[in-house]
What does this fold into?
Amino acid sequence: MITAAPRHLRASYDVVIVGGGPAGLEAAVAAQAGGATHVLVVDREAEAGGILLQCIHSGFGLHRFGAELTGPEYAQRALAQALEHDIDIVTDAYVLDIDAQNRVKLMTTTEGVSLVDARAVVLAMGARERTRAAIRIPGTRPAGVFTAGLAQRLVNLYGVLPGRRAVILGSGDIGLIMARRLTLEGVEVAGVFEIMPHANGLNRNIVQCLHDFDIPLHLSTTIVEIHGARRVNKVTVAPVDAALQPCLDRAWEAPCDTVLVSIGLIPENELSQQMRLRLDPVTRGPVVTSAMECSRNGVFACGNVVHIHDIVDFVSSEAALAGFSAGQFVTGALPPPDNVRLLPGENVAYCVPHTIATEREHTVYLRARRLLDAPTLRLVDGAGAIVYEKRLRYVFPAEMVNLKLRPAILQHFHGDVLRVELVRHTDPRDESTQGEAAP
Amino acid sequence: MDYDVLIIGGGIVGCAIARELTRYQLRVALCEKEVEVGFGATKANSGIIHGGHHAAPDTLKGRLEWEGNQLWDALAQELHFGFRRVGELTVALHAEQLPALDKLLHHAAIKGVPGVELWSPERIRRAEPALSPAIIAAVYAPTTGVVNPYEACYALAESAVRNGLALLTGFPVERLHRYNDGWEVITPSVRLTSRYLINAAGLYADEIAGLAGVRTFTIQPRKGEEYLLDKRLQGLVKHVIFPCPSPVSKGILIIPTYDGTLMVGPTAEDTPDRADLRTSTHGAQTVFAAVGQLVAGISDKDVIAQFAGLRAPASGEDFIIGPTAQPGFLNAAGIQSPGLTAAPAIARLMVELLRQEGLTLTPRDDFVATLPRPVHFATMSTQEQIALTLRDPRYRRIVCRCEYVTEGEVLDAIARGAATLDGIKFRTRAGMGRCQGGFCTVRCMELLARAGGMALTDVTKRGPGSWLVRTRDAQKEEP
It folds into this structure.
């Protein structure tokens, strides 16, 4: 594997990119394409590539490369491309703060804490996992409770196992992947417990990681207590009712020495908060324009730090946009500001970007709040008039919806707010079914 | 005799006594069953240095609460652990609670605790606008402080070790025998002898006393659940907020901890099980219902961590400190709230009691009261950080991204006694932040393994039995 040797840092860069995962590496190359000359990528690990480096399973890159790559293979392509473009990459390093003048407070193993001036910044810090504490499972606090991603790191990068008999809480993709991985490593996976009535991960992962290995998936079921004084020795599991409250009279115990928690990701926005950027309370990532610019000029963001993506291919394309914009910002070529706000409406949890320009083409990413079969995606103006609609096959919270918005679609729209809605398809002859869709 | 004094139990009380004894020309040892000190009741302590006016003046608790309170400033200055006098408010919601406030004022007057006063609702509102408007009065005490209890315990132990204490962690005491004019102490790996024994065994103090033939009290474990809240709520209250006390506990408090994070709790529930450290749905409900009466805007959604600890009250509820029918065997037992506050005073009292029991105390002229100040990267100014990292490359790598802990700080913690993941966490805060160790766990495991010449499979969370990872070879024999 090609790795980036640390080199002498410049005192100033056109663009500094925080995070050397797929988002950061892609943004770096795009920043040059946008007009930047000196680009620095800062990564906290010994090797750039981000979390992909521990994702040794395949399934990455189908959209982008038309090939089924492993995580490290995908990361390697991104890294090789960055190195070809002579991007400075400093690893084992950390961005501690960025002040209002875009002065980056940097920690490196060669120079310690130093200050580097940046004309533009791209935030690409990725995400972290929600932990046991986020859902307050009662019980003891023994060793043996890991987030699924930490377990993945231990197994795939350190060659050790988290235990001998595991249960998995939550059906997020990392948990599903780890169910298969642990089984292949000889760890018994006693079951996956999901509090919701449907699985949280991608369908292909349910099939390939659980069904193919006869690992039971218990829906509408959760862990209500963790036992063990020093190391986990069992969990108490119970089905939940419609209000997601555990039915303790139907609880049972599952002996295990390991609990993996796979209950979702949270954008890693400690730095964004320090910088006082505006955050979206739903995505928990920065509010961004169609150029992926945050609420502070010259600060851009992309990838999982903005919102959690299902697949890395979309991270890369979003990062290319953010990086290109950062490069344009440096040369003063950033297109004029957006003129329309996008608001999540019915059954839409969020949409990114938060604003668009009617005269340009955009990819809008959105997530449904609940499952709908054959819904209609609508854009509605401030007065409630439908500006655009499109039939979809289905929408489901675990799968992001991509909407291509072309100037032609909005050529007759002159407002400044568009609401994005996902509504049950209605027959125009049946007025009674219009409006709020049933859950 | 191997030692003049051997202390059983390395909690805050045992460590405070050990450090006090190392001021004299004595051979002192401390046996702790866990692999690190402070891993029992101490690490789950609420971290409050009580104002001095809570416990009744005619009890030993009451006397030592106020004596101990006054010793913390000097200790924190010498040993550099986190301590701040933030003050407290004990609040009354109903007229029937006013006598309890009068009692606190009365205690303060008798003991001479300065600055304790009754506050009107207006005054309360001004100082703590987030508190419930239903509060009709409060007793304010400026003397109350907050401390990181485990930091204090580690610092006391380290100071004692630097002054000659033989600290024996991972040495559970199994049997005690009279031996010449002292005692023989049997642990699974070693047999030690000492002229005097001090029982500071916390939850197990009655069992240790029993080994010496002293059966005058029992310990009734009382569980407390605590809930740490998200940083978002920092500053919501500035003082430690107490409800009016009940007979068994001081009630459920709102604590602005030394690190700034709010903590709510503890519950108070007797349990027969000395290992019962479970948190429960019921406990959370109790805590948040009680807190909801005092302040709006805190809910169980804000919890970032939860834990339970066990208090070690003795039958009779007062401290049991002093000699027993067995010559040379002294108790420091039944140390419940305000035990942390009283610990430095308990240590002084114990030295005095040993003198009365015939121990010759000759002060040493080479006792060093201070510890080197630990590096705390996160709270340094940028200029200080630049200077530090320029000088010392060990501090050039961030290990914990939530709390900005550097590799050098973790290495310092290991050099100063951390032997487990929890030991690192409590000393450096690595793993205490929002990601709860998702990022730093492996790095800390690697550093521990490297420092101890171990494999990752030998690293534990908090000692034997709390292993973290296994090898891929399932047939391999494992501890």
